[in-house]
Specification:
This protein is an all-beta fold and 95 residues long. The protein contains no helices and 6 strands. Strand 1 (5-6) and strand 2 form a beta hairpin.
């Protein structure tokens, strides 16, 4: 969700915040090189909290992300029926 605020004649800024909930409940992995014709119902997780690389896997996972963003843009008015806008945005996701 963002709100466009004009701060000069044709310049604007859009601060935004968002929440994303992503859920995967059933994983079908077809890309295992050792078993090219088989499928597996898990996903390998690359997780190394210390120096010991243990093997972790999961059948389902959930993401809850908070997204913060800001955009800076400019409006170009060509005539009374045509307008062009250009903006640049930056987003940061907190997991």
């Amino acid at each position: 969700m963002g709100y466009k605020m004009l701060f000069r004649k044709s310049w604007y800024i859009i601060p935004s915040i968002g929440y994303y909930k992503f859920t995967v409940d059933d994983i079908i992995n077809n890309s295992i090189p050792a078993y090219p014709l088989g499928t597996r119902r898990y996903r390998t997780i690359d997780y190394h909290p210390d120096s010991t690389p243990l093997g972790y896997s999961t059948r389902k996972y959930h993401y809850n992300n908070l997204s913060l963003g800001i955009a800076l843009g400019k409006e170009f008015i060509i005539n009374n029926k045509f307008q062009v806008t250009a903006d640049m945005s930056f987003n940061y996701q907190l997991n």
